[in-house]
Fold FMN-dependent NADH-azoreductase.
Amino acid sequence: MKLLHIDSSILSGGSISRQLTKDTVAQWVTNHPGTTVDYLDLAVDTPSHLSADSLGFRAPAGAEC
């Protein structure tokens, strides 16, 4: 089984939600041996903002955007 653990708080070590998700994931893994955890920290690996270009949308030639 795979589990995606995402943190997004900018407070790092002072974040209550980070501690809660850490504890929740630890309990899950204890109760479900063999679970693979993929971790994503949005405060560290900040995604770029989405735009029409990044999503692959293109306006017809001569169109105003």
Q: What stands out?
A: The first helix runs from residue 16 to 31.
